[in-house]
């Protein structure tokens, strides 16, 4: 965890905060964003008593603040049963698109006790472009589950999901991830201009998800290299640009590329000079 938290200066000029937040609301919001319990996912366990001690408010005032944010502002939620606080827009401002963040996010979300918070964050996480299917997080409740079923099956669902998440499947997940990296490395060595490898790898994983095969990409690279050889004036695109634009779909037929006529051919053109 970082030893400091940055708060954007727009916090003080945001119209919603200016119009709707009381001084106590702003104080509590800043505390929720910067206290020592904050983590990578913006959902962490903290008791009413702890918040009372840190802020200097009574427990009643803290409970009133939490309830107001739950019901009115809807930017922070608190689960009184699991004692977890959830900053709703944390992911929007603090999650980068780097695939290196996928594993830490995965581990942190799996530890959440509140089923509601778990599923909300799992949905956000699973929609990240960098996440492989093998690393997606299962939801604890399906969308058509009734409240009565939730209460009756909560313990069973929680235990079964935790078992599936922390079982030997974790080994196969890391294995698949490393295999994908090896496959990409082979293609990357094949490409002529190796610039922007991380973004190229992200684009590669997205393509594999959509059904594109390594053979198609490899053939696309070879066709592109032939195109460059036939058009020596053309500089190769950066690797990240080629992968992100799915250039393996380009028509790089060498026979179709325009050729500059040799000097001898000018004699047969009847040019007026």
Instruction: Compute the separation of the termini in Å.
Output: 75 Å
Give the count of structural domains.
Answer: 3
Q: Tell me, what's the shape?
A: elongated
Q: Which range best describes the helical content: under 10%, 10-25%, 25-40%, 40-55%, 55-70% or over 70%?
A: 40-55%
Major sheet size, sense and barrel closure: 3 strands, antiparallel
Beta fraction: under 5%
Strand order of the largest sheet: 1-3-2
Q: CATH-wise, what's the superfamily of the largest domain?
A: Winged helix-like DNA-binding domain superfamily/Winged helix DNA-binding domain
What name does CATH use for the topology of the largest domain? Arc Repressor Mutant, subunit A
User: Which regions are unreliable across 5 or more consecutive residues at pLDDT < 50?
Assistant: 142-175, 254-261
Order of helices and strands: HHEHHEEHHHHHHHH
Rg calculated over all Cα atoms: 27 Å
Task: Please characterize this protein's 3D structure.
The chain has 273 residues and is mostly helical. The protein folds into three domains: 1-94, Orthogonal Bundle (Arc Repressor Mutant, subunit A), CATH 1.10.10.10; 96-167, no CATH class; 179-256. It contains twelve helices and three strands. The chain has helices spanning 15-20, 23-34, 48-55, 59-73, 90-94, 102-110, 115-126, 147-165, 169-190, 197-209, 214-230, 239-244, and strands at residues 43-45, 76-79, 84-87. The chain has a three-stranded antiparallel beta sheet. β2 and β3 form a beta hairpin. The longest helix is centred in the middle third of the chain and has 22 residues, at 169-190. The protein starts with 14 loop residues before the first helix and ends in a 29-residue tail after the last helix. Residues 142-175 and 254-261 have low confidence and may be disordered.
């Amino acid at each position: 965890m970082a030893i400091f938290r940055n708060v954007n200066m727009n916090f003080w000029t945001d119209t919603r905060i200016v119009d709707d937040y009381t001084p106590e609301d702003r104080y509590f919001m800043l505390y929720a964003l910067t206290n020592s319990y904050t983590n990578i996912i913006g959902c962490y366990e903290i008791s009413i008593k702890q918040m009372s001690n840190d802020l200097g408010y009574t427990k009643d005032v803290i409970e009133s603040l939490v309830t107001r944010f739950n019901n009115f502002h809807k930017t922070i939620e608190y689960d009184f049963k699991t004692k977890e606080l959830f900053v709703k827009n944390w992911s929007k401002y603090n999650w980068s698109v780097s695939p290196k963040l996928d594993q830490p996010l995965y581990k942190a979300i799996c530890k959440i006790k509140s089923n509601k918070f778990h599923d909300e964050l799992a949905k956000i996480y699973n929609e990240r472009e960098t996440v492989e299917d093998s690393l997606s997080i299962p939801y604890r409740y399906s969308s058509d589950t009734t409240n009565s079923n939730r209460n009756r099956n909560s313990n069973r669902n929680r235990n079964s999901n935790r078992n599936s998440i922390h079982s030997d499947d974790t080994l196969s997940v890391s294995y698949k991830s490393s295999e994908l990296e090896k496959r990409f490395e082979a293609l990357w060595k094949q490409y002529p201009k190796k610039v922007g490898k991380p973004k190229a790898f992200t684009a590669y994983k997205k393509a594999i998800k959509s059904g594109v095969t390594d053979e198609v990409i490899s053939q696309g690279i070879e066709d592109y290299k032939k195109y460059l050889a036939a058009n020596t004036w053309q500089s190769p695109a950066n690797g990240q640009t080629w992968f992100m634009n799915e250039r393996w779909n380009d028509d790089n037929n060498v026979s179709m590329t325009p050729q500059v006529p040799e000097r001898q051919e000018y004699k047969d053109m009847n040019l007026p000079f």
